[in-house]
Amino acid sequence: MMEMSLSERATSLEGVYSRAMPWEPGTAQPPKRIEDALWLFFSDEEACLVEAIVDRLIPSDDLGPGGKDAGCAVFIDRQLAGPYGRGAGNYVSGPFSPGTITQGYQEAASPAERYRAGLREVDRYVKAMFGGRGFPELAPNEQDHVLSNLESGIAHPLTGVCAKEFFKLILKNTMEGFFADPVYGGNRNMIGWKLVGFPGARYDYRDWVERHNEPYPFPPVGIMGSPEWKG
Amino acid sequence: MAKKLPPKDVVIVGLGWTGSILAHELSAAGLEVVAIERGPWRDTATDFPPSYSADELRYVHRNDLVLRPDQETITFRHNCNEQALPIRSFGGFLPGNGVGGAGLHWNGQTFRFLPSDFRIRSHLEERYGKSFLPDEMTIQDWPISYDELEPHYDRFEKLCGTSGKAGNLRGEKQPGGNPFEGWRSSEYPNPPLKQGLGATIFASAARNTGHSPFFGPASNCSEAYVNPLGIKLGQCTYCGFCEKFGCGNYSKASPQTCILPALMRYPNFSLRTESRVTKINLDGDGRRATGVTFVDTSGEAWEQPADLVLLCAFSLFNVQLLLLSGIGKPYNPQTGMGVVGRNFAYQTIGGVTVILKDKILNPFIATGAHGMFVDDYNADNFDHSKLGFVGGGYLGAGQTGGRPIQVRPVPSGTPNWGSQWKKATAETYQRAYTLMSHGSSYTYRDRYLDLDPTYNDRLGRPLLRLTFDFHENEVKMSQYLTDRLADIARAMDPAEIEAKPRKAPYDTNIYQSTHLCGGTAMGTSPDTSVVNRFCQSWDVPNIFIPGGASVFPQQHGYPPTGTVGALAYWTAEAIRTRYLKTPRQLI
Amino acid sequence: MRALITIGLMAVATMAAVAQESQDSDQIERGRYVSILGDCSACHTKPGGRPFAGGIALRTPFGTILASNITPDKETGIGTWTEAEFISAVRDGRGHNGTRLYPAMPYTAYTKMSDDDVVALRAYMRTVVPVRNRVDANQLPFPYNIRLALAGWNLLNFRSSRFEADPTKSPDWNRGAYLVQGPGHCGTCHTPKTVIGSDKVSSALSGGVLIGWFAPSLTTDVRTGVGGWSQDEIEQYLKHGANVWTIASGPMAEVVSRSTSQMTDRDVAAIALYLKQSGITGKSSDSALISLDEPMMRVGAILYKDNCAACHKDNGTGERLLFPRLAGSPSVQSDNPTTLARVVLQGARAGSTSQFPTAPAMPAFDWRLNDAQIAAVLTYIRNSWGNAAPPVSVGSIEAQRKALATSAYRYP
């Protein structure tokens, strides 16, 4: 059989492949770098509230910086401003019925919509409970108390928002922000990875598999590199 | 009105594992073959190179390589009394999409079913009596034997470069292998993977408690390898980004790394991507398929005529396509009549998390299918007479990574956030290991697939509806397996252990494998199966479902892919040697 | 290929009698083989297009030229050309009515072809299916569109001369020399060019830049040429597109698939023999090994480990048939880092042959590494594991990145 050359692609129709493995330069899809700039989704007040929340969910302590310094709020902001926030890819046709919890999320609201409503309600709840003071103005132990109430579902009334579910969402996103690759805006300086000793986006451990009980000595690396990459 | 394309000999619906194997076999036989794939072209260097494949957020939590529910999903209910609701965001299982299918982002576990699995009902009835099995259980013997399928298991493993150590070579037990496995005609094509500390400690504990640990058979190449198609695979680098990820350095078996480079060289093969097959077309009598209709990205409908139609979609969507095309008798759970959608099975997965004392486990050093496992409690390898259930599974230590968004165990009772959480997370990460019990999922009258009456996909077609929950048999089995696993775990000298057997109700939010099986079972009779022993439709002889997991009459205690690959080769051989010369109903 | 011959032979009957030229099927088959040796389709057949119908855009330093339609079509091809005109075009760069051809048509190499070969080639080309495809051959900007200027160019650079065998060498050596210097026209890419685009004869086969790739040296130099490859390895590469060192990619992958993989084993062996024993020693710039302590090397080492080692390994040995070997690689140690820079920036897919079908691809790093980082990691691989080569400048990466962004040449 004649050898096929790379250029012998019969692709007169888009999406039809024949005769060779295709190759187009520039078709890679790396993640887009997050610019540390203004908030894209949150208003200033929402941002303030979220920063305060993530800073209690993951506090600053002797183990290292907390959620705010890690950029968790920036992460969540960028996620909500993008396809995740829109609920892109989800099945959003009706009719909508609540179902059992094990049947999965059954509401129409996207994550972005859930945050708008959730943050608004949490703010109202806190102000009602603390005589007009907002969450960022509370003392840490008061903030923790609020978060515990949300987590357990005691917090009410939250109009149209399930406290438990909203807390789960923001906790999940905070953890994502803390441990995801720094390219997404969180895990600044890889502090989440350094907390647990995860080497990040490394791809070759052949020499280390059988070195049992030995700490892995190389610093973490992200998709966009590490400080060591600068000359 | 669909525009008609020039006819082909074969049209293949879906280009995952089975589609790729059949496409290659039949293109090599000189036929004009076209594959139609719903999703996009996917290739290593442009879609998942090492430079950005190691991204837990994107591939695990944003499901980037997985089917999007807005393109296709299913509705789910636990039983007939519940309203089925759409799975709006995949969680419990992750169907593939695109060239390679789920074979692109699987772990690589490549087990064979046991000889007794292939005659499971007969075997259990012989041993325990006919009344031992619950009435509503509908497991059935396979219409083929292990011995018949063995050469095809061998072929698939050689295609993949599977790494492992044989336990039974041509009837002779081999030290270091699985003493329970069925006989093998040859050793694994690659030696076993190297094992980390966690699996090594588990293996010791298993041995010390009287079990027989063996190396997990892994289609992650322990050494660089050239497969029978002349395609080269790389050496696995234990990167810890395996399941749900594409492999960046050609070391995980997939259609991409094992078949496509050879397949694409055939001038008689072509592929259409981003095209959704909406229907299999039949002639006036309904006894012969004339081809398929598909819709491209612009919404335009096309007709692809062909002499032979191969259904190679993900298991669920094989069932859906048959139902939507009016092929075969849909299953009715009330009457027990009909077969399409009958015998749905899943997998019953439990686990035990151990937190060891003072160990550096480096959990991020991992592959998808490495590990040490025991089969002492799989299938009928142990006496069930006083246990009150049937079935079993493998137990073992095969943690696939330490990606910290998901994998950051803490001692039970630790808060989910705050300083205590932070401290516990930092202190536990290197010491924790998650063991698994991977149990069978037998089939029942009331666990099935049909079309949903309410919800449609974006082309306006009814979604597939799944009615499923764990039966008492599976819950009991999982409890037992997890208890046995905990016994071994205790022998690992842990600081703490937490056992999590699988319980009902089935939770679609928690990932429990993508091993959805059944719905187009293979069997000896059209009353209890959709395809015959050659995976040929009883109703329309020029339709085959070559070995996808939808042809399983039940699911056994092993992941399905090894058997899926073997059945694909089995079917290919039947088509090549029996069907093509004289196309006809083979049974 | 078989189909082409069948159709071609059927078309023979419809040729008008321009001259009573031979229709000997052996000669036609010989001519078909000569067209493979000469790789005519590389320029004259558009990807996915009709054989020899022209239309490919060739980017030269002087502008873009379109390769002509050389099917026997009377109006748009060469159907009205005489045998003498055909031969003169191939060997002297003078076509129909004496029109001068641009040396993008490598007549300066084809001039060495024997009478038997060119006559056979002509016989074969007459059997190719005529295709109506008008190609505007005059695309170069002023003043290069003035073909008369080529007279001067030819005066300076061209001697019409046939290959002369060296009586002191074996028949196989001579065959190899003939193939390399003549129809194979290897020097068109592998010999550096003067500013006016002629071969730097004194640096024959020491490497050249063409269409954004550096074709490596084919001299016997161990570090930068084929001196470190065995004859077997050269044969494997030409016949099957890969050997223990590397896999053909970019333009060479096409040369393998269209030309060298279809040569006879004997011819491939002759080429390999000649290249090993050509006596063309080359002179790569003597390069002192750059110390690992240099800042560029220190950063390069880290970048290498984090970006490259998962495939090319910490020790640079790669994996044969998948990840080219960097340690000891002539490509890596080339004086000119154009190919290295290009492959790292844009990625590349290796070619596929029936023996070695894998066609793995190098992913792009242009989004991940900046110019300084690419310069550092390339300098590192050029000076590690026994390699020694000049450092790569940041400026050269910057220039290559710009060129790739604007290049209309979509060569994989």
Please, could you describe this protein's structure?
- The complex is a heterotrimer of chains A (about 230), B (about 575) and C (about 400).
- Helices cover about 40% and strands about 0% of the residues of chain A.
- Chain A has about 230 residues and is mainly α.
- Chain A starts with 15 loop residues before the first strand and ends in a 35-residue tail after the last helix.
- Chain B is α/β, with parallel strands linked by helices and about 575 residues long.
- Chain B has a single domain, classed as FAD/NAD(P)-binding domain, CATH 3.50.50.60.
- In chain B, strands 1, 2, 3, 11, 12, 13, 14 and 24 form an eight-stranded mixed β-sheet that branches.
- In chain B, helix 6 crosses helix 13 (about 560-580).
- The radius of gyration of chain B is 23 Å and the shape is globular.
- Chain C is mainly α and about 400 residues long.
- Chain C folds into three domains: about 1-155; about 170-275, Cytochrome Bc1 Complex, Chain D, domain 2 (Orthogonal Bundle); about 295-405, Cytochrome c-like domain (Cytochrome Bc1 Complex, Chain D, domain 2, Orthogonal Bundle), CATH 1.10.760.
- At the A-B interface, strand 1, helix 6, helix 7 and helix 8 of A face helix 2, helix 3, helix 4, strand 5 and strand 11 of B.
- Strand 1 of chain A pairs antiparallel with strand 11 (about 270) of chain B, so a sheet runs across the interface.
Compile the SSE list and pairings:
The complex is a heterotrimer of chains A (231), B (587) and C (412).
Chain A: E1 16-18, H1 44-57, H2 67-70, H3 72-81, H4 83-86, H5 111-129, H6 140-152, H7 163-179, H8 191-196
Helix pairs in contact in A: 1-3, 1-6, 3-7, 5-7, 6-7
Chain B: E1 3-4, E2 8-13, H1 17-28, E3 33-36, H2 44-47, H3 50-53, H4 56-61, E4 74-77, E5 85-86, H5 120-128, H6 146-160, E6 168-169, E7 172-173, H7 197-208, E8 214-215, E9 225-226, E10 232-233, H8 255-258, H9 260-263, E11 269-272, E12 276-282, E13 289-295, E14 301-311, H10 315-325, E15 342-345, E16 348-356, E17 372-374, E18 393-397, H11 418-428, E19 432-439, E20 448-456, E21 462-467, H12 472-490, E22 494-500, E23 517-519, E24 543-544, H13 561-579
Parallel strand pairs in B: 1-14, 2-3, 2-14, 3-11, 4-21, 14-24
Antiparallel strand pairs in B: 4-5, 6-7, 8-17, 9-10, 12-13, 13-14, 15-23, 16-19, 16-22, 17-18, 18-19, 20-21
Chain C: H1 2-12, H2 25-38, H3 40-44, E1 57-60, E2 63-66, H4 83-92, H5 107-110, H6 115-125, H7 149-157, H8 171-181, H9 187-190, E3 208-210, E4 213-215, H10 231-240, H11 251-258, H12 265-276, H13 295-307, H14 309-312, H15 338-346, E5 348-349, E6 361-362, H16 371-382, H17 394-406
Antiparallel strand pairs in C: 1-2, 3-4, 5-6
Helix pairs in contact in C: 2-6, 8-12, 10-12, 13-16, 15-17, 16-17
